[in-house]
Amino acid sequence: MEELVRDGWLVCEHGRGMFVGNHKIDQHVVGGNSSSGAAYAPAQGAWTSRMLSNSIIPAGTSLGSRLRVEAGTPSYASLAN
Questions:
Q1: What is the pLDDT of residues 11-24, one digit of tens each?
Q2: How far apart are CA 25 and CA 45, in angstroms?
């Protein structure tokens, strides 16, 4: 049971019991050097993405706060799939 909890298959809630967990996808860091300081094993499957659109928009209050710029600052926006 401990192994299933550790791997994310089960969740143990004190006083409530065991529940099926949301299994997490993870990648383990492997040895090696790269510009970022670590090399990562590729995830399984065929991964693709494509740019659907891009534009420059004024940052609103929320986006400006997250980007740490003033509201109205031109910001690059893109939509990918």
A1: 888 888 888 887 66
A2: 12
User: In whole angstroms, what is the distance from residue 11 CA to residue 13 CA?
Assistant: 6
Q: What is the DSSP string of 3-68?
A: HHHHTTSEEEETTTEEEE--PPP---EES---TTS-EEPPPSS-----EEEEEEEE--HHHHHHHT
User: How far apart are the C-alpha atoms of 51 and 77, rounded to whole Å?
Assistant: 11
CA distance 73 to 64: 7
> What pLDDT is recorded for position 38?
57
- Phi and psi at 40, nearest 5°, equal -120, 140
Token match 């004190």: residue?
14
Reply yes or no on whether the pLDDT at 54 is more than 80.
yes
